[in-house]
From TrEMBL:
SUPFAM superfamilies: F-box domain. It comes from the Eukaryota. PANTHER family: OS05G0510400 PROTEIN-RELATED (PTHR31215). This is F-box domain-containing protein. It holds the Pfam family F-box.
Amino acid sequence: MNEDQGPDDHFDRLSDELVTLIFNKVLDAKSLCRCSVVSKRFASLIPQTDNVSLIVPSSNNSKPKRGTFFIVFLKYLVGKFITKPLQFLYQTVVPKLSVNSDEDETYQFTTEVLRNFINIKRLSIQLPCHGDELGSKGTDYFLRWKAEFGRELESCVVLGATSFHRSSSTPSSHKKHKQLHEPMSATDELKTRVVWMISSLIAASTRHWLLKQIIADIPMNPQSVMISDSSKQGRLIMGEEQFKELRRSMNPTAPVERTMVPAVRVKLWHVPVLELPASGRVMNGATLIVIRPAERTMKMESEDEGLGDCFEGEEEEEDLREAVREMLKEKKPYKIEMDSL
């Protein structure tokens, strides 16, 4: 070390390529924005990162002062992103549930941040929860969904239960229940499943609409996109070819329209008490719902074989995978047809 010049900065010895690789491992946009103020070199390299994750703060957070695009991100205010159709559904099916919408503000601030990253290949956006998600009102509902989109919905898988807990009794105590279908004609039971299915579809289509607004303004071509929520309830997934299909379908001179769910055909498996031997857990009112566009019905039987992998990457991946496998053992799923939403 030269005492006149001060200590060496070993980070300066790294090439730009290696520094960019390190930033790609950071993922979190908040951490990246902090790094950007360290030096001019960092500020020039961070926009080139191709692995970007935006964790959207709650609207209750205080508003920071305006500044560079990284500081603008800290100002990012998010609205509730459930659409008006879902508000109507909830007010009809679940009385007294109110939903407010600030999609425009969400879109504007998200776009303002993302347009400063010029090489996005993997994009992850985590939206906040607002207390009106299913199961957030003190109930024991368990709900997970995953939707794949291209230009429109390709598939949506919903796994739900009225409770999901560790077994407190011996396996044999549930055996006789596991073989029986719970009657689905009961009003409360049917209403619960309808809410799970419709709310998941509309939440997914709303996220798809948000993505369309973003890419209408930003010339990015990611290889993968995931839009999730902080409660880990649902994920919208899109691959490279699906993203290209979506971009090709958009008219750059026309306003972005809300994403409609096409006419679909639904397969529903239901087990009143589902025991998971490997995990030692039990799902009460276990329900697996597979939703696909009506035009893809011919492929439904063969595609069911891969449903066990649809929740890959979830915190409870193995438990969910086991639950799906056990549900698929049911011989006769319920079948439902539904017009577009």
